[in-house]
Specification:
The complex is a heterodimer of chains A (about 300) and B (about 130). Chain A has about 300 residues and is an alpha+beta fold. Chain A contains seven helices and ten strands. The longest helix of chain A is centred in the first third of the chain and has 33 residues. The chains are: A alpha+beta (about 300), B mainly alpha (about 130). The complex binds copper (II) ion (CU). Copper (II) ion (CU) binds next to loops of chain A. Chain B: This is Membrane protein.
Amino acid sequence: MILLAGCNAHQSTLAPFGEEARSTYWLTVTLGIGALLIAVLVGTLAWRAAHSPGNALDHRQGMRLILWLGAVFPTVVLTALLLFALPEMRPLPSQPGDLTIRVDGEQFWWRVQYESGRGEPLIGANEVRIPVGRPVVFQLAAKDVIHSFWIPGLAGKMDMIPGRTNRLIVKAEKTGRFRGVCAEFCGLSHALMAFDVVAMEPSAFDAWLVAARTPAAVARGRTRGAALFADYGCNACHAVRGTEHDARIGPDLSRYGARTSLGAGTLPPTTGNTATFIRDADAVKPGARMPSYPMMPEDEAHAIAAWLKELK
Amino acid sequence: MSDPERSEQHRKWHQQLRITLWTLIIPPTAWAAHFLFSYLWAAISCAKTGRFATFPVLFVGGTVMALLVILFSGWLAWHKERTPGDPPPHEDSTEVDRLRFLGKATLLLAGLSFVGVVFTALPVIFIGDCQ
Ligand SMILES: [Cu+2]
């Protein structure tokens, strides 16, 4: 039962949706079956050895058995596996024009920047969207400590190291919503540092990339939530496209309403949860780098949350 | 000795080579040196050219050299190991047992080291990436 609890289709190396994860999956299956066969072989040999009369094998035959089954056979099998696995470990091919997504790991969330061609990159957070069938180059770095970027269904993990940019090239093969996680212990809320991955049809992705740059209409609106957001100084850390708020310390909230999670994969982004998070982020995510607002009345938190939910 | 009637001069050149504890460690030493060489070569050539060499001539040359050293010491050990004598274990304090023991041990080490060098070289060549 405990093992079954790990089964799911959106965050699993056993449910691959990308090229690299798929070949890793088949390698795992091959290794599993091979290990089973070898275990059966060893078991049979041991059983026969224990049940055959003494001296059934002379010294020469025994030595030959050790040479072939104990040395030559494993060497050949390991060489074959190595020759199969090594080419898979090469980075996927990519061209200079390919979509580049820069992701920075920060305690305990993800800064995401889509860089395509000229112009300002599109900034987002805690969600990564990729087109299916095209290579995507991830440039991975970190602000504070070492994190690790891992989308189990897509590709292997890649460390995010402060002061260094690592490249990970991926290619999604199936559309859908998936999940990625931080795979390197990075502090109190390491386990609450995940993100959503959306693999889209290329045309839908291109359309999204354009649409995402246009500010949400309500951003400029003179709602109570928008006013409170500024009054409480949230704009010291958060940016909202289409307003004068452009701080880059915390996650960009321009399209918060379109997110499928709150606090980097921690909670469903309902208005209620968002309000709770705004008043006491530390209670939801211990060690989160966002101040708590214990004096904020609940209805004000709700007003801000409601406004943020409309930013799509 | 194995063939006391033959004088020193009539022996083939390789029969004059002695095998000792020192020659026993030649194969693993070649393996270790090749291992270090692989890292150094990759680091230096990547740092100098910025990308993985298309034809890693120096690396292949070094690998072939390590393999030749190992093959040679294995071949020598194989000859010594065939000195006539009792079947194993070679545990008597006689010259023949000493030779046969060292020969067999060196031969096995040479086999292991050969595979070790190949398994070190394959990733370097196949991954072919500087990151
Ligand atoms: Cu982390």
